[in-house]
Structures are given as structure tokens and as C-alpha cells.
Amino acid sequence: MRGTRVLLAGAASLALMLTACTTDAPEGDPDSADGGNGEGNGSLTPDAEWFDQAEFDAQLAQRGITPEGSDDEPWMQAIEPDWIDTSEFAIDDPEEATVCFSNASVSNPWRVTGFITMEQQVEALVDEGRIGDFRVSDAADDDNQQISDIQAFVDAGDCDAIIISPSTTATLTPAVETACDSGVPVIVFDRGVNSDCMVTFIHPIGGYAYGADAADFLVENLEPGSTVLALRILPGVDVLEHRWAAAQQIFGDSELEVLGFEFTGGDGAAIKDLVSQHLQRGSVDGIWMDAGDGAVAGLEAFEDAGQPYPVIAGEDELSFMRKWDEEGLTAIAPVYSNFQWRTPVIAAGMILAGEEVPSEWILPQEPIRQDELGDYLDLNSDMPSLHYAKFGGEDLPGFPEAWTER
Fold this sequence. Notes:
The chain is 35% helix and 14% strand. It is α/β, with parallel strands linked by helices. Helix 1 packs across helix 5 and helix 3 (143-156) runs parallel beside helix 4.
């Protein structure tokens, strides 16, 4: 799996926001301009640009593989790792090391939660003498800005390691390769690029696994012939396309009727409006989402319409999980492990100490199911609604204030 690196982000929001007009047909509707999936389940064949059967099969298999490492530290676990020697990057005084981080953005709650966790992990590593200075640039989801940010780190010449969470895949590939060519160790995480020049690429299992967890749950919990509405954020973002491609593959083999898909821009008001439009046209039995931070808005549309709640796949964002618990929903929370934000800075400390790291560091990615819901709500009882349950920062210096006072 070391070859071409693909985008593996969780629910990243870009500057492009696609929302629907309330007077138009829903975007994924058979009568809309883009055609939706109006030909029925036979049209649910995944787009070849976004579907790789071998990678799909690999990710679904990885869901059942026990990772190496302690269950108490999932951010340190690795699925079938290929450990590599990093002694060439070892430095004499790691406590003086400067680690530079080029971040795509903190433009959605998932990324905000993760970045807080990363900052707290940095504080712990500084206290341990594993790293020294930590410098951050934020590209605000602008590819050109991130390219400039990475070049600035390279030109400065004082970064001992560079961590990159790319905004997009192809456009950021040359900038990542430029960073690799500078001779300092490069760590890519969350989303990938079309290169294997980095020392390690860190990510949860991936988008296919996320989309399949959600689609499998709907197939298992809905009667044949039931209707499903898919809510998507944006087109053209690999991890989101992979989530939808996995759902297409699974729904296409099922007896469910997929009404269509809708691009929402991740906007709660757009989600509620689009769901309301579909409910005006007929029943909606299930909701599939490629990112669940707007799930509550979608559920509110059912409340307003006086319709029973759907079977729904949301995410481990607390507003959804609390709604799930309060209303007794039939639901699942797919997870794109937010604790992954700890791993890159830990990896930087390991590399600068000359310790082995996996060439591709695949982290576990376990959805939250009904039998775990209460436990995760108890663990996160003081956290804000936009927090993510599997953030993995309970043992870090600023817990809980760093997250509750965001």
C-alpha cells in the first residue's frame, strides 16, 4: 500500500460551499440538472475515478484486523505496520528541535477538536524533552496559501521536521515533494498526496471503511424496499468521494431504494431544507451521511414534518450522539479517528530520536454503536456539542479545559 498516496481526510470543509435553493429540485433528485441517481439502484455503480476495488477490499478487511499496540493508546496503534529505520534523521538535541506544521485549515469542528488535541500533545512532548519549538501555518483551505506556507518553511531552513495535512491531493503533491527534497523528515497525515517521499503517512483506515460502516448499518436495519437519502458535503474531495463510492457499492447490491444524494456544503440550514424537500415528496426511511456534524439539523426536518425519525448514520460528534441517546434513535456513529492528530507530533519526536516508525501508519477506525453510546457520552459529559467523542486526549495536560474553553 506504499505506492500512490491518496486523500484520506475526515470531513474536511473547503472554501467552496454548495447549497441548494429552496425553490429548486434537490440536487440529487432524478429531476435535477445533475441527474442524481434517477435510474434507480442500477445507477449506483461507483465512478471509476473514485473507486479502486483493491483498496476498497483492503480497507474493509482492515476493519477486522487487530492493530499492534495498546488499546489504551489507539493513537499509537498501527495496522500491519512496515517499520522503517529513521536513524539518518536523528539529531543530538531533540529538546532543541523545531517541528513545523502546515495545516490545511481549522474550518470545521472535527479539525478544531483535532488541532486542540495536537497542541496539547506538543505541550506534553516539550515537557518530556522530545521536541522544542512548534511552528504552525494555517492555509484556511487555500491550496495556493498552503503551497506558499510549505515553501516558507523550506526556505527558512530551520525546521528539523515538517508535518503536513494537505488541503487537496494533486495540487499539494509538488509542494510536499519540495519539502522532502529539502532533506528534513516529512510527515503527512489525515489527507495524502500522490507521492511516497514522506518518511511516514499517518491516517485511519480510510474513506471506504467509513462509508461502508454507514451503508452496512442501513442495509442491516432497514426493510427491503425502504428509502434512503444520502447527504454529502462536497464533490471532488477524495476521502468524501471514497465514502460515497463505498456506499454506492453496498447500496447497489442491496434492496434499498436510494432516493438521491444532496451536496450540502456541510451547512445545517441547507441540510434541514433539503431533507424537508424530500419529506414533502414522500417518506424517507434512512439517512446516510459522508460527515455527520449536520445530522441534528436533518433530524429536525423530520420533527417539523411530524414524521418518524429515520435510521441514520451520523458521526461521533456529540450533538448527534446526544440526540441519538435522547430520542432512542436507531443509529450508528462512523468514526474518522480524531485522535490521529496526536500521532504526527509523536512521530516527529520518534524520528528525531532515530526510532523506527511505520512507513504507512494506519490507525484503527472503529464506529460507535448502541452498546457503547452511553460510555462515550459519560466520558465526554462536560464537552461541548461540537466536540468529537474519539478525540483521545483525556491524558493530555490541558484536559478538559483546553477543549471545553475552545
